[in-house]
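Dear colleagues,

For the upcoming journal club I promised to circulate an example of a predicted protein-ligand complex. I picked one with fe (ii) ion because it came up in last month's discussion. The inputs are reproduced below in full, followed by the predicted structure.
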Amino acid sequence: MEDLPQGVRFLPGYLDPLAQRALVEGLRAIVAEAPLYTPQMPKSGKPMSVRMTNCGELGWVTDRDGGYRYQAFHPVSRKPWPPIPIQLLALWRDLAGFPLPPEACLVNFYDGTAKMGLHQDRDEKTFSAPVLSLSLGDDCLFRVGGTKRSDPTVSFRLQSGDIVILGGESRLAFHGVDRIYSGSSALLPKGGRINLTLRRVTA
Ligand code: SIN
Ligand code: FE2
């Protein structure tokens, strides 16, 4: 692989298949309580191709009128988000190098046609903690660059169990998902890819 942009950490195969299956079980319970919904782009109201939910005290949401933000409840059910599973809290403790636990875990679900445009994670009030991202299910083509949209980017395949950490000088790195490789993993019986991102939100 080409060199990653400064500060980007890539931990391929960090979670073994057993740990991945345990997490998927936990996610089933989360999605039962806080169903995946289709977020909208700010202003245009255009639906995103990725479906989302959250766990943790705060969840990242977006819709036409309210734009990108964090809130403590599901936008459809209005119920508080379910707690972050302990396996994820342990991953954060082991890898984030930050003294406080994550406040938000965004759950992204990609079907075979979903993608996510190049963006920065910058809706948090603090950038001192990293964003820790875990992939489950089908592979994707992930792209990451620098802190300017025009910076060169590197593309590589993320597989189930891989972790990417954007912290320090890469905390505001532009990143996105260009495509999903349907059928590349058997972890999710109906296919697709799940991405979990753990974040600190408040200062
Ligand atoms: C995100 O940036 O929210 C998702 C990244 C990914 O799906 O790997
Ligand atoms: Fe992101």
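Two points we might discuss: Residues 96 and 172 are 15 Å apart (CA to CA). The chain has one domain: 8-199.

See you all on Thursday,
B. R.
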